[in-house]
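Task: encode each sequence below as C-alpha cells.

Item 1
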Amino acid sequence: NEVFIVVYARINRYLIEYKNVVYDGTNCRLYHRKKAIQMCKPYLKSLIGICMSTSLDECIDRNFKRDRNVPEDVIKTMYKSLHANPPKAYDGFEQILIF
C-alpha cells in the first residue's frame, strides 16, 4: 500500500503540472486499475490501456533472467488475477491495445 500511495501522489503531481504520464503497472487487481483510472480521468482527453499478452511460461522465464526475481507463486497469482479480470473498455479506457 505504501508504494501505491507514492505512485498516486506522483501521478497526481505530474498531471496537475500538465506533464505526460506513463503509468507502467500490472494492475492485475481491478481495484488498483480503477483507482488509477479515476484519478487520471479529470486530466485526460483520452486514456489508452496497453495489455501485453505474454504467456505464463514466458513471464516466469523472463523473471528468472532478471537481477531481482519475483517469487514464482506471486507471478502465478498475478497472472491468474489479470486473466480473471482483464482490462475492459468499461473500466474507463477509450482504447485497449493488446500486444
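Item 2
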Amino acid sequence: MTADTPRTPARGQWWSVVPLADLPPGSRRVVRAGTFTVGVFNLNGRIVAILDLCPHERVPICGGRVDGTTLPSSYGTFDWSRDGEIIACPWHGWEFDLVSGACLVHPGKRLRHFPVRVEDAVIYVQA
C-alpha cells in the first residue's frame, strides 16, 4: 500500500452521524456510518441506532411506522404500551422492539443494533 492508497476504516470505528439538537425526542434520522445505512432514533432521551435492514426480507426498515403495541389484555379490552418504541417494517408490517431489537411475532428475528455515544452534543455510532 502506498501513501496515496485510501485506507478502509478500521472495523468498529466511531462515526459522527448527527448533532443531538437535530434529533429531538420521538424523531429519527437515517444516516451513513462507514459502509452502513443506520437509523438513529431518540426514544424519549434514549438514543438507539439500528441497521436500516429488516431481517425478514432484507428491505429498508427505518422509514416504517414507529408506535406502540398491545399487551396481553383481558377479554374486551386492549392495553396499549411501549408508545414510540416499536417499529413496523413498511413492507410487511413485522414489528420490532427498538430497544431490544426483538421481533414481536417471530422469535429469533432481530434488528441489528450499533453502539451509540453522545459526546460534545454530537451522536456517534460505532460501525
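Check on item 2: DSSP finds no helices and ten strands in the chain. The longest strand covers residues 79-88.
End of task.
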